[in-house]
Each structure stands twice: as C-alpha cells, then as structure tokens.
C-alpha cells in the first residue's frame, strides 16, 4: 500500500464533511440571521411582511373558489402527511431496489428536517400575522413556516432518493420541475391564506433545502469501517478506489 492509498480516504472524508459543514453554516446563517431581525422587529422587514400579507389576503378574500383551493392544498401538504408518504417511499426503495443505505439516509433526513422546523418555531416564537378580516387561521408560531420547511425538505429528499432510479433525462427534468412547483405553490398558499409572512416561507424553504443538501453532502461517499455491498452509487463511488468491497478483485 502506498502513502497515496493511505492519505486519500482522509482527504476525501475531509472534503465531504467540509461541504456538509458549508451547507449547514449557510442554512444556519439564514435561519438565525433573519430570525434575529424578526425577534428585534426590524422595521423594513416587518413593513414588507405586513404589506405583502395585506395585499395577498385581499385577493383571497375576493375569490372564494381560490380560497377553497388554498385550504385544500394546505390540508394535503400538512407535514405529517408528507412524512408518512416520505416514509413509505423510503420503505419502497429499501425493499425493491436494495439501496438500503440511501433509504435510511432519506428517512433520517426527513425526521431531522421535521425536528429542526419545530424546534426553530419555539426558538423565535413569532406570532402569526394579524389580519383585520382573516381568511384562515393556524395554531402555533409563525417563523419559520413548517409547511415550507417540510415541503422543501420532502421534495428534495425524494428527488435525491429517486435520482439513481429515474435514469432518463426527461424524467429527471420532470421530477425536479414538479418538486419546485410543489414548494412554490406551498409557499404562496401560506401567504395567500395569511397564516405566514413572506420571511417565514422564504426562510422555511431555505432551511428545508439546506438541511437536505448538508445531510446529503455528508452522506455521499460514506462507507462503514467494514464495508459491505450497498448497491448505492453515491455510497460506493466515494471510496471504491481505495476501499474495494471484499468480493472485488
């Protein structure tokens, strides 16, 4: 074994963990930076949030059919429903494809995003928007939006989970487009219903997406100390050149 063989895995792990830390740091800076402005009631942000909510709820109030559609979407995208579907998707991938490490990563990341979203609400304790003639109401704190955090994390995890399975370029493009549409519709749904400010949903989307990217950056190329075949391209690719599986020549 050469010195290069010995040194390469630590360098690979360092780069991988460095990317994960960078994603996590950017996500934390956005979450806590905007959260500080929210807690300190920074006038430009508060005025912008209030103004947007007033204009959007006026539109919803004038269109009952639109309001009904928003309420339906709100119910369909409740975090608990998203995570039930996400868990079933992880089980299906685990059972049918053999990508067990990837499925476990996806499930753990979904639970992490859910926990972080809930915990952040109690850290910042922002009250829900106050609208003179509310079109909808929601319990709990406002910042960040739980629907936004969880929908962003959910679609990002599912796209990453299904990426090796969906090999056609058109299929991958369609998958990403649908994922982006789900997040955007969910974000606007929260604002048009007047239950979240623009800063709530924006930070929610960044937090959900950033958590998944950080988690995935740390996961890619990971191998246990006694590696076994994982049938997972992201796991196998990272250390295959320096840590071949036992059955490989």
State the helicity in percent bands.
over 70%
| Largest sheet properties | none
Unreliable stretches: 1-8, 225-230, 237-249
What's the total count of β strands?
Answer: 0
Q: What string, H for helix and E for strand, traces the elements in order?
A: HHHHHHHHH
Q: Output mean pLDDT.
A: 85
What shape does the CA trace take?
Answer: globular
* Structural class by SSE content: mainly alpha
Termini separation comes to 15 Å
**Proportion of residues in β-strands:** under 5%
Radius of gyration, in Å, reads 21 Å
Assembly of the depicted chains: single chain
Number of distinct helices: 9
What does this structure look like?
The chain is an all-alpha fold. 73% of the residues lie in helices and 0% in strands. It contains nine helices and no strands. It is globular. It starts with a helix and ends in a 10-residue tail after the last helix. Residues 1-8, 225-230 and 237-249 have low confidence and may be disordered.
């Amino acid at each position: 074994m050469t010195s290069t063989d010995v040194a390469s895995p630590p360098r690979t792990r360092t780069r991988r963990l460095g990317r994960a830390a960078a994603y996590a740091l950017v996500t934390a800076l956005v979450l806590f930076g905007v959260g500080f402005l929210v807690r300190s009631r920074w006038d430009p942000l508060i005025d912008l949030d209030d103004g947007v909510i007033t204009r959007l709820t006026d539109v919803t109030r004038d269109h009952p059919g639109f309001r009904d559609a928003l309420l339906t979407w709100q119910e369909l995208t409740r975090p608990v429903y998203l995570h039930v579907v996400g868990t079933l998707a992880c089980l299906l991938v685990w059972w049918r494809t053999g990508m067990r490490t990837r499925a476990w990563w996806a499930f753990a990341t979904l639970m992490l995003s859910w926990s972080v979203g809930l915990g952040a609400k109690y850290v910042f304790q922002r009250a829900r928007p106050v609208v003179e003639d509310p079109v909808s109401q929601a319990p709990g704190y406002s910042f960040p939006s739980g629907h936004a955090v969880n929908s962003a994390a959910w679609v990002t995890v599912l796209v990453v989970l299904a990426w090796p399975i969906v090999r056609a370029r058109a299929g991958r493009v369609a998958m990403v487009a649908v994922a982006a549409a789900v997040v955007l519709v969910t974000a606007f749904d929260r604002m048009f219903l007047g239950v979240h400010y623009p800063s709530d949903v924006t930070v929610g989307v960044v937090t959900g997406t950033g958590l998944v990217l950080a988690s995935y950056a740390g996961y890619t190329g990971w191998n246990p100390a006694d590696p076994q075949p994982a049938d997972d391209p992201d796991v196998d690719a990272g250390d295959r050149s320096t840590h071949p599986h036992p059955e490989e020549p």
